[in-house]
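Lab notebook, design round three. We kept the backbone fixed and only want residue identities now. Task for the bench partner: fill in a sequence for the structure below.
Input structure tokens:
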């Protein structure tokens, strides 16, 4: 600042700050801000104010609530007594929030700040000036809200027409025109979808892609959160998705409403897209999006405690990895407030090796593999049933909208359809896990070599493609190792 004494000059000239803001600067040239500054400097000259600082917030909306660094800097300088007056082009350049305007009025009261606008003088020291400022602020807020509604409606109309959403980086899998498929990236997307449907973690896929040099359109390594959003996007299936965001939401929801077929071709099928969207939106997977809670034990949750309870039924609680005296092992957790008995444990290394050998031996059987694939094909029938029910719900909604049926009739007819939909969607989320086996199944020796190169998430995907759960019976005290205590519930 040119005047650092913190007091007015001897002539009594006001130390003025110019605040400039423009909401959108698409060209990035800052011309709107420059024009505001020029007009404000002319205003300060007429008022005999000494311009000591300019605070430009370029391409920052006051309505959106986005941080305005220069505005905050201006407020801090006012608090320190370094500014006596503010010049702006219009009061709505300061804020479009009535609440924030009241803060400005309070600040003017405490610090004796004068405010002048190019579009008309406002004296915050008088009741009339404050009333005018509030009226202008309310009008600006009204216009901002209407503009937001118009833009929201325009975006939805564009989505319903299947048109391309402008702006932003090139979408992964497509060329710069956003329509032509880039086949090298499309193959990677299809691979990612298959691996997610096979229950492999996003963190595992990202680590593999990073090792292979696969990067985003920005040239950066993939992170689980970004990969999740890519694979859950309806765009890669050639469909247009509308994802509105409320003003209270800091991030856009993962899944939007699919409103139309798009003008660009899909990389994956609608069926696979629906499956992967449901899988990735499952809250059970959400905690591992950033890979912060890595599963260090291969069979945690797959193993179930088989120790009989008082009624003769097995405990059934999921076993977890817990070392004892430094030795990794699986145990039934004795957690207070649960039904876990805490009475079963097994050496982790030997258990992992035994289950691996059993799974590889099963996959060495062509009959077993064929049964798995037959079950996977059942998912196609589920998908057809889901689409039929969705179309039936849409037809019911149209009938009610056209008053062919009453709301009561619509609610009665809708209930069994929605129940059937929820059931089939839950079933659909559990099929297609055999996709991971397509590049894994071979001779027993080949599978052993591939197993060695896999991480735990990939190995777990192979196991859960074949096994529902494994019951672990209590150990025979006469045996050092008893493989017969493991009862495998095979999927096929």
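Proposed sequence:
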């Amino acid at each position: 600042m040119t005047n650092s004494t913190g007091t007015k000059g001897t002539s009594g000239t006001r130390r003025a700050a110019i605040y400039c803001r423009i909401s959108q600067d698409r060209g990035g040239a800052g011309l709107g801000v420059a024009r505001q500054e020029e007009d404000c400097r002319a205003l300060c000259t007429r008022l005999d104010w000494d311009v000591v600082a300019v605070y430009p917030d370029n391409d920052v909306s006051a309505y959106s609530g986005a941080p305005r660094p220069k505005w905050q800097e201006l407020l801090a300088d006012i608090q320190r007594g370094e500014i006596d007056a503010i010049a702006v082009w219009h009061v709505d350049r300061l804020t479009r929030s009535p609440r924030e305007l009241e803060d400005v009025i309070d600040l003017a009261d405490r610090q004796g700040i004068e405010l002048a606008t190019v579009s008309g003088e406002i004296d915050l020291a008088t009741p009339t000036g404050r009333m005018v400022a509030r009226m202008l602020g309310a009008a600006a807020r009204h216009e901002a809200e209407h503009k937001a509604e118009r833009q929201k409606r325009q975006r939805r109309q564009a989505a319903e027409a299947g048109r391309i959403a402008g702006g932003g980086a090139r979408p992964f899998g497509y060329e710069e025109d956003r329509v032509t498929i880039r086949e090298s990236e499309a193959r990677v997307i299809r691979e990612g979808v298959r691996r997610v449907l096979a229950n492999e973690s996003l963190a595992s896929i990202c680590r593999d892609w990073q090792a292979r040099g696969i990067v985003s359109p920005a040239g950066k390594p993939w992170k689980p959160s970004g990969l999740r959003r890519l694979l859950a996007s309806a765009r890669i299936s050639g469909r247009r998705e509308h994802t509105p965001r409320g003003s209270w939401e800091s991030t856009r929801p993962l899944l939007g409403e699919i409103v139309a077929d798009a003008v660009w071709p899909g990389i994956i099928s609608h069926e696979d897209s629906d499956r992967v969207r449901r899988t990735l939106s499952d809250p059970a997977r959400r905690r591992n999006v950033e890979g912060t809670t890595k599963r260090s034990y291969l069979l945690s949750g797959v193993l179930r405690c088989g120790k009989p309870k008082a009624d003769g039924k097995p405990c059934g609680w999921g076993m977890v990895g817990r070392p004892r005296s430094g030795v990794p092992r699986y145990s039934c957790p004795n957690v207070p407030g649960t039904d876990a008995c805490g009475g079963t444990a097994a050496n982790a290394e030997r258990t992992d090796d035994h289950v691996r050998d059993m799974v590889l031996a099963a996959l060495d059987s062509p009959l077993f593999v064929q049964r798995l694939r037959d079950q996977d094909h059942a998912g196609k029938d589920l998908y057809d049933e889901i689409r039929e029910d969705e179309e039936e719900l849409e037809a019911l909604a149209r009938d009610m909208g056209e008053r062919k049926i009453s709301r009561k009739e619509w609610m009665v007819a809708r209930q069994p359809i929605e129940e059937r939909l929820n059931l089939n969607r839950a079933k659909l989320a559990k099929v297609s896990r055999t996709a991971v086996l397509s590049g894994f199944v071979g001779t027993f020796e080949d599978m052993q070599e591939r197993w060695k190169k896999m991480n735990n998430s990939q190995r777990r995907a192979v196991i859960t493609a074949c096994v529902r759960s494994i019951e672990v019976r209590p150990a025979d005290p006469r045996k050092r190792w008893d493989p017969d205590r493991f009862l495998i519930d095979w999927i096929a």
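Keep this in mind before ordering anything: The radius of gyration is 32 Å.
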